[in-house]
Design goal:
The complex is a heterotrimer of chains A (about 325), B (about 400) and C (about 290).
Chain A lengths: L3 H5 L1 H9 L3 H9 L2 H5 L4 H23 L8 H16 L5 H23 L4 H21 L1 H4 L24 H22 L2 H11 L11 H27 L9 H14 L6 H19 L4 H15 L3 H16 L1
Helix pairs in contact in A: 5-10, 5-12, 5-13, 5-14, 6-7, 6-12, 7-12, 10-12, 11-12, 13-14, 13-16, 14-15
Chain B lengths: L1 H23 L1 E8 L6 H18 L2 E2 L2 E9 L5 H13 L5 E4 L3 H14 L2 E4 L14 E3 L4 H14 L4 E7 L2 H17 L2 E8 L7 H10 L3 E5 L5 H11 L8 E5 L5 H7 L7 E4 L8 H14 L5 H20 L5 H8 L3 E4 L2 E5 L6 E13 L2 E13 L2 H7 L1
Chain C lengths: L1 H32 L6 H18 L4 H22 L9 H23 L15 E4 L2 E4 H23 L1 H11 L1 H6 L4 H27 L5 H4 L1 H11 L4 H21 L6 H13 L9
Antiparallel strand pairs in C: 1-2
Helix pairs in contact in C: 1-5, 1-6, 1-8, 1-10, 1-11, 2-3, 2-8, 3-8, 5-6, 6-8, 10-11, 11-12
Classes of the chains: A mainly alpha (about 325), B alpha/beta (about 400), C mainly alpha (about 290).
Chain lengths: ~325, ~400, ~290
C-alpha cells in the first residue's frame, strides 16, 4: 500500500494512516453491542477484551518489531499477581492497583529487554520460552507468596470509583476492561503510526541495516518491548481484578502459546489482528466447548488449519487480500 | 375477530402456563469439570459416576426433572471456572453447581456459590480449605490430610520408626507431606529426609536413588495420578528397592488401576491409604462395580465414587426439602446425612460440611492372577484433621 | 556417592537418548528447509499408539511393532507433506506455526477420541524387563536396550550422511539450499524423503518412550517443549548437535535432581537459557 509518492512524503503518509476509517468506527461501536444484545455474556466479553489487549501487546513486538516471544505471559502473570497481592494486602482500589501492577510489569520488561535485544531467530524464541518457564517455576516454589497451585486467595476489590461493584453479571467488569482496552489501543495506534513505528517496521524487515540510516535498533527494541510488557501487565492486572483470583496458569507456557496462536490467527502487524483473533478464538472456543466439552479442540484445530490454508497472513491478511482483489477487479 | 383473538390468547396462555410450569418442574444442575486437557480422564470418570446414579435412580426427584448442563474448564483455570459458574447461574439459571475435579477451580467457584447463595457439591477436589469458601458447599470425596495424616499415625503404629518422604512439588504434594509428617511425628516417628520433585518430572531415578541412600524403614511418596505412579514404581524396581524390606507408603493414586497395570510386578508390596477401591469387598460395591462396568466398559475409581456419592447427596437433600432448591435449604438437608456408599459408611459433617469416612490401609498383592489393592486394615470415622486442627 | 551417581547418570544418558531419537528428525528438517513443523511430536505420538494397538490388541511382540511404528509415522508424514505442508514452504514462519499447531490440536483430540485419556500400558517381553548388575550397579535392561538402539541409529545416520550420494545431497541442501538447487539437486525431493525419515524416527521414539515416560493423548503437546530445547541447543541441521544436546540435557537433568533436588525443574531451563546465550546458534549450528 506504499506508493512512491507516499515514500517521498512520510509526514503525509503517517497522517493518512492515522485518520479513522469508517470500518474502525463501526468496530468500536460494535463492542458496545454486548451490553444490549447479550447481557448474559458480559463476563465472557470482559475476558475477550482482556485477551485482546494481551494480543495487542504481543503484536507490538511480534507484528511490528519482529520479535517472536514464547514467554510473553511472564508479564501478564507477573502483573496479575502484583495486582492480586496489592488487593490482598489491603489496597483494593482498582485503578491505582492497575497502575502499580503495570509499572511492575514494565520494570520486569525493561530489565529483560537487555537480554532480548542481543538475540534473534530460534535462540530468541527459546530464550523467551526458557525465561517464561523459569518465572513460572519460581512462582510455584514461592507458594508462601503466590498461593502456589491453589492460586491466590483473599483478593477483594473495592468498588470502581467508589460506586461500581464487580458483580456476578460482569457489567462493571466489561465496562472497565473495554475502557482500558480502548485507551491502550489508542496508545498503540499512535505509536505504530509515528516515526518510531516506522522504524520498528524497518527493524522487522532488516535489523542489520537500520543503524545505517540512523535508527539505533537496540534502543528502539528495548523501548517497544517495555511498552509491550506494560500493556501485557495491564491485561493481567485486569484479569486479576475482574475475577478476584490469580493462578499459576497466568504465567504458563499455555497462555503464551494461546496468545501467539490468537495473534497469528487474526493477522500480525495489522493493529486489529490481535483483537479480531481474540474475539474469534474465544467465541469459537466457548461455543465448541459448549457443544462438545471433550473434543472441542478438534474443531479449533480444524479452524486454524482452514484459516492458514485459505487466509494466509491471518484473517485480516486474507481479508485485505480479498479487498484488494475485489478492488482490482472493479 | 374478537373471538379469534380471545381463543388465540387462551391458547397462548395455556402454552405459557404449561411451559412455565414445566420450567418450574425442572431442577438445573450445572456440572463444571475439566473435560479436555490433562485431567480429562478423571473428569470422564466423574461424569460416568453422575450418569450411573441417574440411570439407577431415574432422573426425577421430588416430582421434578433433573437437567444437567455441562461446562468444560480445560484444566486448571480458575478464571474460566469462575466465569462458567457465573454464566451457569446468570444465564442458565442453575439451582446448584457440582463437579470440580481441581482445587483452584473449586476455590474460584466457591466464591460464586457464596455470593449467589447456591448449593455446591464438590465431588473431588481434595484440598482441606475448599469447603470453608462457601457456607453452601459440601464435599463428597476426601481431603488430603484425612488420608495422609491417618497414614502417618498408622505407619508408626505398624512399627515404622524412621521415614523418608518424597512428594510432588506443588500444593497438594506439600499438603500430603505436611499431613504425613504431622501424623507420623505426633505418634513418635522420625522423618529423616524430605524431598520434593518437580511437578512435570518424568524420570524418577535420581529421587529414588536418594531415597535409597537415606536407608529409612519406610519411604513415603505423594504423587498425583497420571504417568508418574507407574514411572515411580518402575524406578523403585530399577534402583533395587524391595518393598518387603523397605516399606513404600503412599496415597491411593500411587497404586491406581492404571498405575498397577503399567507397573506390573514392580508394585507388589506397596502400602497405600485410600477411601475407595473397586476391589473393596462389600455386596454394595460389587453391584456398583458390575453396573459401572456394564455401562462404561471399565472399572470405577475414586473419581467415579466421589461423583456417584455426590449425586446421592443431591437426590436425598432434594427429597428432604421436597424440591426446594435454595442454597440454605439444600445445605441444611445435606448436613449430617449418613448412608452406606459403595466405599463404605459415609457422613457429611454438620459442622464443616466435609466428608467423614473410613480410611482403608491396603497392600498391593497378586490375587487370582490379578495385581490389586487388598485392604488389610482400616481407621473408621475419620474427620478432616486439618479443619479440626484449625479450631484449636 | 560416585558409585550410586553412576547409576543415575546412566539413566540420564538413556533418557537423553530417547530425546535424541525424538528430536533428530526435527533438527535436520528445520535446518534444511526452515519449515517449522510443530506437529513433529504428533508423529511421535502416532508411532506410540501404533505400538500400543499392535501389542495390546493384536498381540504382536514389542520388537516387531517398532518397525511398524517407524513406517506408519513416515507414511502419514508423507501424506501430510503432499497435501498440506508443500503449499506452505514459501509461507511465513508464523503461518507454518499456526498450521502445525492446528494439526497438533486435531491429533490430540483424535487420540483422546480413539484411545481415551488414560495412560497407555505397554506389554514388554520379559527379556526387556528388570535390571542387570554391572560393577555392583543396578542398570535397567530396557534402558540398556534404548541406548543400544540409539547408538545403532546414530551410526546408520552418520554413515548414510557421509558415505551415500543421498547423504551428500542432504548435506548440500542443509549447507546452502540455493547453491544446491543451482547445482541441479532436487532439493524438494531430498526434503520430502528426509522429512519422512525424520518423522519415522519420531514415531519410533514415541514407541520407545512409552516404557520410560508413558504415553497418553496429550503426548504431542507435552514433549514438544523438550524436543524444541534439544533442537535449539544442539543446533539446526546437525545430527551430532542433537546427540550431544540430548545427552547433555538428559544427564544434567538427572545429575541436577540427584545432587541439587531443591533446584528441581529450574535446572534444565536454566541450562538451556545459559547455553543459548553463550552459543545462540546451538552447539553445532552454523550462522
Amino acid at each position: 500500500m506504499v506508493t512512491s509518492s507516499a515514500v517521498a512524503e512520510p509526514q503525509r503518509y503517517l497522517e493518512a494512516q492515522i485518520r479513522w476509517r469508517p470500518v474502525e468506527i463501526a468496530f468500536w461501536l460494535a463492542t458496545l453491542l454486548p451490553f444490549v444484545l447479550t447481557p448474559n455474556y458480559l463476563v465472557l466479553a470482559s475476558q475477550i477484551a482482556i485477551t485482546a489487549l494481551f494480543a495487542l501487546s504481543l503484536d507490538l513486538i511480534l507484528g511490528y518489531a519482529g520479535i517472536v516471544s514464547l514467554g510473553h505471559a511472564a508479564y501478564f502473570g507477573f502483573a496479575s499477581y502484583t495486582a492480586g497481592l496489592t488487593a490482598r494486602w489491603g489496597w483494593g482500589e482498582p485503578l491505582t492497583g492497575l497502575v502499580i501492577a503495570a509499572a511492575a510489569a514494565g520494570v520486569l520488561g525493561y530489565l529483560t529487554s537487555f537480554i532480548i535485544v542481543r538475540f534473534r531467530h530460534l535462540a530468541l524464541i527459546m530464550i523467551t520460552l526458557g525465561l517464561g518457564l523459569l518465572l513460572a517455576e519460581a512462582a510455584n516454589s514461592a507458594s508462601w507468596l503466590t498461593g502456589g497451585a491453589d492460586g491466590l486467595q483473599g483478593v477483594r476489590m473495592w468498588k470502581l470509583f467508589g460506586v461500581f461493584q464487580f458483580d456476578l453479571y460482569g457489567t462493571t467488569a466489561y465496562t472497565y476492561s473495554l475502557a482500558i482496552l480502548f485507551v491502550f489501543f489508542l496508545v498503540a495506534r499512535r505509536l505504530i503510526n509515528s516515526p518510531f513505528g516506522l522504524a520498528l517496521r524497518g527493524i522487522r524487515e532488516n535489523a542489520i541495516r537500520m543503524p545505517a540510516i540512523g535508527a539505533p535498533s537496540p534502543a528502539h527494541i528495548r523501548k517497544v518491548y517495555t511498552i509491550a510488557a506494560v500493556m501485557a501487565g495491564v491485561a493481567g492486572a485486569l484479569l486479576a481484578q475482574t475475577t478476584e483470583t490469580v493462578s499459576l496458569e497466568t504465567l504458563s507456557f499455555q497462555r503464551s502459546a494461546d496468545v501467539l496462536v490468537i495473534l497469528i490467527l487474526g493477522g500480525a502487524g495489522r493493529l486489529y489482528g490481535g483483537l479480531v483473533g481474540a474475539i474469534i478464538y474465544m467465541v469459537a472456543r466457548d461455543q465448541f466447548s459448549g457443544i462438545n466439552p471433550q473434543y472441542w479442540y478438534f474443531w479449533i484445530g480444524t479452524l486454524l488449519v482452514a484459516v492458514v490454508m485459505f487466509l494466509p497472513n491471518g484473517i485480516l491478511g486474507g481479508a485485505a487480500r480479498l479487498v484488494r482483489s475485489g478492488r482490482s477487479r472493479a | 375477530m374478537r373471538k379469534t383473538l380471545v381463543a388465540f390468547a387462551n391458547i397462548a396462555a395455556a402454552i405459557l402456563a404449561v411451559t412455565s410450569a414445566q420450567a418450574q418442574q425442572t431442577i438445573k444442575v450445572g456440572v463444571i469439570l475439566a473435560y479436555s486437557g490433562q485431567f480429562a480422564d478423571p473428569s470422564a470418570q466423574m461424569d460416568n459416576g453422575i450418569k450411573l446414579y441417574m440411570k439407577q435412580h431415574g432422573d426425577t426427584v421430588a416430582g421434578k426433572k433433573i437437567e444437567l448442563i455441562r461446562k468444560d474448564t480445560g484444566g486448571i483455570a480458575p478464571d474460566i471456572a469462575k466465569r462458567l459458574a457465573q454464566e451457569l447461574i446468570v444465564r442458565d439459571n442453575v439451582d446448584m453447581l457440582v463437579g470440580f475435579a481441581l482445587t483452584p477451580n473449586a476455590l474460584a467457584a466457591g466464591d460464586v456459590s457464596a455470593q449467589a447463595k447456591k448449593f455446591m457439591v464438590n465431588m473431588n477436589a481434595a484440598t482441606a480449605i475448599i469447603t470453608t469458601k462457601s457456607p453452601y458447599m459440601v464435599r463428597t470425596s476426601f481431603t488430603v490430610p484425612q488420608l495422609n495424616q491417618t497414614l502417618g499415625s498408622w505407619a508408626y503404629k505398624s512399627g515404622i520408626r524412621k521415614a523418608y518422604t518424597m512428594v510432588s512439588d506443588f500444593g497438594p504434594g506439600h499438603d500430603g507431606e505436611a499431613a504425613f509428617h504431622k501424623g507420623f511425628k505426633d505418634a513418635g516417628g522420625e522423618v529423616i529426609g524430605a524431598a520434593r520433585y518437580p511437578v512435570a518430572n518424568q524420570d524418577f531415578s535420581a529421587f529414588v536413588q536418594r531415597a535409597k541412600d537415606a536407608n529409612a524403614d519406610a519411604i513415603y511418596i505423594w504423587t498425583p495420578g497420571g504417568p508418574q505412579p507407574a514411572a515411580i514404581g518402575k524406578a523403585l524396581a530399577e534402583r533395587g528397592i524391595d518393598p518387603k524390606k523397605t516399606k513404600v507408603l503412599g496415597q491411593g493414586e500411587l497404586t491406581s488401576e492404571d498405575a498397577l497395570k503399567n507397573m506390573g510386578e514392580a508394585g507388589l508390596g506397596i502400602i497405600t491409604a485410600f477411601h475407595y477401591d473397586y476391589n473393596h469387598q462389600s455386596a454394595m460395591n460389587a453391584a456398583f462395580v458390575k453396573s459401572y462396568k456394564d455401562a462404561f466398559g471399565r472399572n470405577p475409581d475414586m473419581f467415579s465414587a466421589g461423583a456417584f456419592d455426590g449425586m446421592h447427596v443431591i437426590y436425598e437433600a432434594l427429597k428432604k426439602t421436597g424440591g426446594k432448591t435454595d442454597g440454605e435449604s439444600l445445605v441444611d438437608a445435606a448436613k449430617g446425612m449418613n448412608w452406606e456408599s459403595p466405599r463404605g459408611p459415609m457422613t457429611i459433617d454438620p459442622e464443616t460440611r466435609d466428608v467423614i469416612q473410613t480410611v482403608y490401609i491396603r497392600r498391593v498383592e497378586k490375587v487370582g492372577g490379578q495385581i490389586v489393592n487388598v485392604e488389610f486394615d482400616k481407621v473408621e470415622n475419620v474427620k478432616d484433621p486439618f479443619k479440626a486442627g484449625m479450631k484449636n | 556417592m560416585i558409585a550410586s551417581a553412576f547409576g543415575v547418570l546412566f539413566d540420564g544418558f538413556a533418557y537423553g537418548m530417547l530425546l535424541f531419537i525424538l528430536s533428530v528428525g526435527l533438527s535436520v528438517t528445520l535446518g534444511m528447509m526452515n519449515f517449522v513443523n510443530l506437529a513433529h511430536c504428533s508423529f511421535a505420538m502416532l508411532g506410540g499408539f501404533v505400538t500400543v494397538t499392535l501389542t495390546n490388541e493384536l498381540g504382536w511382540p514389542f520388537l516387531a511393532s517398532l518397525p511398524l511404528a517407524f513406517l506408519s509415522a513416515a507414511l502419514v508424514s508423507v501424506a501430510f507433506e503432499r497435501v498440506l505442508y508443500r503449499r506452505l514452504y514459501r509461507a511465513s514462519d508464523l503461518d507454518q506455526c499456526l498450521l502445525t499447531i492446528g494439526i497438533v490440536f486435531v491429533s490430540v483430540a483424535v487420540a483422546a477420541y480413539i484411545y481415551g485419556t488414560i495412560q497407555q500400558p505397554v506389554n514388554l517381553p520379559s527379556y526387556l524387563r528388570g535390571s542387570v548388575s554391572v560393577w555392583g550397579q543396578s542398570l535397567g535392561v530396557y534402558r540398556l536396550f534404548l541406548i543400544g538402539v540409539s547408538i545403532v541409529i546414530t551410526a546408520v545416520l552418520v554413515a548414510a550422511l557421509e558415505y551415500t550420494r543421498f547423504g551428500a545431497k542432504v548435506r548440500a541442501a542443509v549447507d546452502n539450499q540455493r547453491m544446491a538447487r543451482g547445482l541441479g539437486i532436487d532439493v524438494d525431493r531430498v526434503f520430502a524423503v528426509t522429512f519422512a525419515l525424520g518423522s519415522g524416527l519420531a514415531g519410533l521414539g514415541g514407541a520407545l518412550a512409552i516404557e520410560i515416560v508413558g504415553l497418553d493423548h496429550a503426548f504431542a503437546f507435552t514433549y514438544l517443549i523438550y524436543v524444541l530445547i534439544v533442537v535449539a541447543v544442539g543446533g539446526l541441521g546437525s545430527i551430532a548437535g542433537s546427540f550431544v544436546a540430548a545427552s547433555l540435557l538428559g544427564i544434567s537433568d538427572m545429575a541436577g535432581k540427584y545432587y541439587f533436588p531443591e533446584l528441581g525443574a529450574f535446572l534444565i531451563y536454566f541450562v538451556m537459557v545459559a547455553l543459548l546465550m553463550w552459543r545462540p546458534v546451538g552447539l553445532f549450528g552454523r550462522r
